[in-house]
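#random but structural
TW: two for the price of one
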Amino acid sequence: MATPTIIVVEDENSLRSDMVEYLVGCGFDTVGARNGAEMDRLLSQRSASIIVLDVNLPDEDGFKIASRLRDGHGVGIIMVTARGTTVDRVVGLEIGADAYLVKPVELRELEAQVKSLLRRLNERATDSAASPPSAPETNGETDEPRWTLDPTEWSLTSPVGVRISLTSMEMKLTSLLAGQARKPATRDQISQALYNRRWNPEDRSIDTVVGRLRHKVEAAIGGAAPLKSVHGVGYVFSAPVRVLGGG
């Protein structure tokens, strides 16, 4: 099995060198890039399993890079920043980062995050390749096919077996909606579940998370996602869904 490739995108030379050297010492094929353009050149020459991505980069910041990586590549994303505010962390997770580290980075923590993320990515890929599409499931009360939410694998599977990997924020949102038994979750409920705070009507972050999840599901299944807006209330998962481990 090929050694996973990791790209460290960091404009601070000493920190980039330290992270690359440490991860190479851990047995990972690791290369460094000073900015998004260098990262793009590396990705044009090789595939990568994980991108370790600094937020404060010249020209194109880490949030923008993470957004386009999530749309066009199947890589894991670990964001690194000197800023440790809740807002920055929330933005990173909404964009689709799988983990978020604050400088000064403890290299052993970086190693642990990389290993954990690789394990999760490998398990998802193995399960997706080994599991044939399943027949539509039904429950005792309806003939409608059911979706399946797996909290352990952070994945949502369509009734015909299309598996969709979820980010942390997407998993929290889907878990909340799945537990509502096709009843709408209010924006305040969603805000509490995602951010542990009451909903601010001027805050559009909920719509951002919902929009990205809807786009991801529709791209995967080639049809409309069962994620609907309920005017004046919030959002609802409009199809039957089974949560694994939930009884």
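TW: number two ↓
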Amino acid sequence: MKSVIAEHLVKTYRKGEVVALNDLSLDVEEGTVLGVLGPNGAGKTTTVRILATLLKPDSGHATVAGIDVVKNPDKVRELIGLSGQYAAVDETLTGWDNLVMFGRLYHLGRQPSIDRANDLLERFDLTEAARRPIKTYSGGMRRRLDLAASLIVKPKILFLDEPTTGLDPRGRQDMWGVIQELVKGGVTLLLTTQYLEEADQLADEIAVIDRGTVIARGTSDALKTQVGGERLEITVENTDVAAAQEIVARVSGHATHLDLRTISAPVSTGSVALMNALRALDEAKIHPLDIGLKRPSLDDVFLSLTGHVAEETVQETKKKKRGGKK
């Protein structure tokens, strides 16, 4: 059963000058995680805002739990949770006050709101900070509180729009653990991200969006296979390069690629090709400095599909260049 269905969504801004969504269609199977992967400006947030009833499409149709998001937005809101890119909490209030306030806004009643707030604060390891103002929280704590707020009504369907944006690696790992627990509890999840590793780690299926439309969809493994499968890579001493290149070409049956002392070629037999290469190298008395099978990463997938790297890779490259300046 499909918990979320979006069909031919179109959304433009500035009287049609800016196209955010261009005939976008996707769906999410009940009890699964769909990772929506794309760079900044690809249309991820616009998609979430339409599905969460915060924005109306110019055309197209969308349902959540079988309910039309345009015709019956109130019914949709009763079933969903939403955590956006930026924490939607009041910084002047404490964490506990924020969660109780969200409970009251959802008409849970005073005591049920207090009970739910206490449960969520414990679940997200925020009990010790519960009575502190949000402005004293770290970025990771704010993100956890925002996610807790989205779970006040125990939603069946959860939309997470770049939930780990701005977190350090440790904070990102912690958030992944929380998300995985939610999925084990039966929540259907649509997760948008520009982090390739995040989609690989969390999603049952991945939809790749670029310029407002879905350009590919499948499991992480299926998308990687689409790029070209495994490659055999061998690094040897300079004096052994020519002989090793002949061996790799013979084992793989394909033309080789040479990068300094590293020879690579596509292989279809995986570990069998690796073992054959090791035997041939041993017979030729060549001792490789490194040898292995390399599967395409989601970085490779994104580059192959879109013709450009994901925003995450661009930002990381810029950071490394800045860090290398003296």
